[in-house]
From TrEMBL:
InterPro entries: Bax_inhibitor_1-related. It is found in: Membrane. This is Uncharacterized protein. Keywords: Membrane, Transmembrane, Transmembrane helix. It comes from Podarcis lilfordi. Pfam families: Bax1-I (PF01027). The keyword Transmembrane applies.
Length: 167
C-alpha cells in the first residue's frame, strides 16, 4: 500500500500536474484513511503490544532522524537496492500467506521493520538534501513529508506484527 502511494505521488509530481494545495488535500485524505486503517488493525492486537510498538516507533524515528543529521553517511544512493529488497519482502509475504507458519511471519515482520527503517533514513536524507544530485526541490517537500509518513506507518505495522505475534 505504501509503495503504491509513493509510486502514484511520484508519477503525479513527475508529470507536474499537482500543485501544493492538491498535495495538502492528499495528505489530509491519506491521514484520515490510514488512521482509520491503523485503528482497525490495532484492534486485533493487545493494548500492551500496541503501546510497545508506539513507543518503539517513536524512539526509532527520533533516533534515525538524529542519525541523518550527521554528515558522514549518505544512504540516498541505496534507493535501487531498497526497491529490490521491498520486492523480495513482498514475494516473501505472499509465501508467508500461503505456508501459514508462525516463524515465517516473525522473520517477515523483522525484515520488514529493518527495510522500512532504512527507507525512513533514505527519505529523511532526501528531504534534508545533503547532496545536490539527490536533493528535492522546495516544491516537493509535501511529497517528502508524505514519504516519511508512509515509512513511519509501514514501520509501525511491521513492528506491531513483530511485537504482537502471539495473538
Amino acid at each position: 500500500m505504501g509503495f503504491l502511494a509513493k509510486y502514484c505521488d511520484g508519477i503525479a509530481l513527475w508529470a507536474g500536474n499537482c500543485s501544493g494545495t492538491v498535495l495538502l488535500y492528499e495528505v489530509n485524505c491519506k491521514t484520515i484513511c490510514e488512521g482509520m486503517l491503523l485503528g482497525s488493525i490495532a484492534a486485533f492486537f493487545d493494548a500492551d503490544a500496541v503501546m510497545w510498538s508506539v513507543g518503539a516507533t517513536a524512539s526509532v524515528t527520533f533516533g534515525l532522524a538524529a542519525f541523518t543529521l550527521q554528515k558522514k553517511c549518505d544512504l540516498t544512493i541505496t534507493s535501487g537496492i531498497l526497491l529490490i529488497l521491498y520486492l523480495v519482502l513482498l514475494i516473501y509475504g505472499c509465501l508467508c500467506a500461503i505456508l501459514q507458519s508462525m516463524w515465517l511471519r516473525i522473520i517477515h515482520a523483522a525484515v520488514g521493520t529493518l527495510i522500512f527503517s532504512i527507507y525512513l533514513l533514505v527519505d529523511t536524507q532526501l528531504m534534508l538534501g545533503k547532496r545536490d544530485q539527490y536533493r528535492l526541490n522546495p516544491n516537493e517537500y509535501i511529497f517528502a513529508v508524505l514519504n516519511i509518513y508512509i515509512d513511519i506507518f509501514s514501520f509501525f505495522l511491521f513492528l506491531l506484527q513483530f511485537v504482537g505475534w502471539r495473538k
